[in-house]
Specification:
Order of helices and strands: EHEHHEHEHEEEHHHHHHHHHHHHHHH
Number of domains: 3
Strand order of the largest sheet: 3-2-1-4-5
Largest sheet: 5 strands, parallel
CATH class of the largest domain: Mainly Alpha
Oligomer: single chain
Bound molecules: flavin-adenine dinucleotide
Length: 481
């Protein structure tokens, strides 16, 4: 890096905060004047089918807050709408900047975009400096012998824990260097309508965007951290952090979270830290194996004869499968943009092992609906549930949606929240309502097939068929060896 740069540009992407920010910290330290920009990138936005997308609304509010915070610090945010590939080089020219500073994004499309921009800038002598920011360890930092990436989580996690030191968790300072901030001449935040989107129910749902929202979620969750291991699997308690979306858009710093969890005593914090490490594990997997976006990690499973059944897929999407725990899960997703982790596992297992539909169908549906959608985590977890991924659930372990329901929502509290048709049903009977006698169905005001769907598949039969679908692959595989 040539130091100091007379003028630099910090490009914010999935790091919408102005504290503990690697690129911003470096730019402020190595430049006389620092401008900041966020691009509503049409290459990303144009691909979103739903023009009332809660993620765009979340970003919009977070950008508004970020601009205000940067202005208070002596700077401000330039906001542009266009293809980042073109906007960034143009803006560099307009500002007369000699360097761009930005935090690394490991998704394949982002890697390609950044490489293209770096090349364009290099031709005119402008630096494109990238930094690790959204993870504690990235790319090749945690590798097994002979420079090969891990494909099993536990050894990866052990290596992660062995390698981490206090230095990896130290914040990147910003507040000490604010004298270098440059105030943009003028920049207005386009409205959602101007961006081609509509406002959503995000705020009414109680989601708090921006750094302030992240801090509020974190403050609340810290009361639960010590018991996380005991309460995390109970959807009705809603006891997880809800920080997924904040990690996705960087309104919270991963170092702040990992540092607290790392130094906190007790099993709850340890288990929660493991979840943060799962996030890094899947980011590492996607970085090293971008083909997983469309293919099974274990390529032999690309031969599974998944079925095509639009009616069943539509019933799953709408939460009308007749399995209350699956339906409650899907309705939570549709209504709020969030689904509890245990339910994501149950819903994904049901799509693949009970309905025999391709995991990519479910993965794409979650990608449209999840507020915390993250390509690496979504893909990795879907492949885990479908038994096609690295370190996946073995194919012969198939969740029974009724026993999962009895175990993780024993009183049916969560089910009743999202499946009001079953509000009067006794807790013992709510997990398999098709077994309730016709007279009792009348008493409960829940006639199966009229008020609530009959099960669209029989789990026991579906299980046998799923085993056969996978076993056939294993046999083909062993014959070819
Ligand atoms: C089929 C399926 C799809 C999923 N899709 C996504 C997704 O698109 N985006 C996403 O962030 N997570 C995904 N997950 C993982 C997990 O369900 C969510 O991270 C979690 O439910 C988010 O809620 P929380 O922030 O309250 O999590 P907490 O339980 O408080 O966990 C804290 C953080 O750890 C990380 N984390 C937790 N569990 C996992 C995991 N299994 N894999 C990777 N990271 C994890 C997340 O960043 C999460 O915010 C998926 C899981 C499944 C089974």
């Amino acid at each position: 890096m040539n130091t100091p740069h007379p003028t630099s540009l910090v490009w914010f992407r999935r790091d919408l905060r102005c504290f503990d920010h690697a690129a911003l910290s470096q730019a402020l330290r190595h430049s006389e004047r620092v401008f900041c920009v966020f691009v509503f990138d049409t290459d990303i936005l144009d691909a979103l089918a739903d023009k009332a997308d809660r993620r765009v609304d979340f970003i919009w509010h977070s950008i508004k807050e970020l601009d205000k915070a940067l202005t208070t610090m002596g700077g401000g945010l330039i906001v542009r709408h266009g293809a980042a590939r073109e906007v960034i080089p143009q803006l560099v020219q307009e500002l007369g900047a000699t360097a761009v500073f930005t935090n690394r994004d490991y998704e394949p499309a982002a890697v390609m975009r950044d490489a293209a921009i770096a090349k364009t800038l290099k031709r005119v002598g402008i630096e494109f400096n990238t930094f690790k920011d959204q993870v504690i360890f990235e790319r090749d930092e945690i590798m097994r012998g002979a420079g090969r990436p891990y494909s099993v989580f536990t050894p990866y996690k052990n290596a992660w824990l062995k390698r981490v030191t206090g230095d990896d968790l130290v914040p990147h300072p910003v507040a000490e260097f604010t004298h270098a901030f440059a105030r943009p001449e003028s920049s207005t935040l386009p409205t959602l309508n101007e961006l081609g989107f509509q406002p959503t129910d995000l705020i009414q749902l109680g989601v708090k965007p921006g750094m302030s929202g992240a801090q509020a979620a974190w403050d609340t969750f810290q009361n639960t951290l010590a018991n996380y291991d005991e309460v995390r699997d109970r959807p009705s308690l809603d006891a997880t952090s809800h920080l997924g979306v904040h990690l996705r858009f960087g309104t919270m710093s991963i170092r702040d979270l990992a540092r607290t969890a790392y130094y906190a005593p007790g099993k709850g914090a340890q288990v929660w830290l493991s979840e943060l490490i799962w996030r890094e594990f899947f980011q590492m997997i996607l970085y090293h194996h971008p083909r997983v976006m469309t293919q099974a990690f274990r390529t032999e499973f690309d031969a599974v004869a998944w079925e095509t059944n639009p009616e069943r897929f539509a019933a799953w999407c709408a939460g009308r499968t007749g399995y209350p725990i699956v339906d409650a899960a899907m309705r939570q997703l549709n209504q709020t943009g969030f689904m509890h982790n245990r339910l994501r596992m149950i819903a994904a297992s049901f799509l693949t092992k009970d309905l025999h539909l391709h995991w990519l169908q479910g993965e794409r549906y979650f990608a449209q609906k999840l507020l915390d959608y993250d390509l690496a985590s979504n893909n990795g977890n879907w492949q885990w549930a479908a038994s096609t991924g690295c370190d996946a659930q073995p194919y012969f372990r198939i969740f029974n949606p009724v026993t999962q329901s009895e175990r993780f929502d024993p009183q049916g509290v969560f089910i009743k929240r999202y499946v009001p048709e079953l509000a009067a049903v006794d807790a013992r009977e709510i997990h398999a309502p098709w077994q309730i006698s016709p007279i009792e169905q009348q008493i409960y005001g829940a006639i199966i097939g009229r008020d609530y769907p009959a099960p669209i598949v029989d789990h026991d039969a579906a299980r046998v068929k799923a085993l056969a679908m996978f076993k056939c692959i294993k046999e083909i595989d062993s014959l070819s060896k």
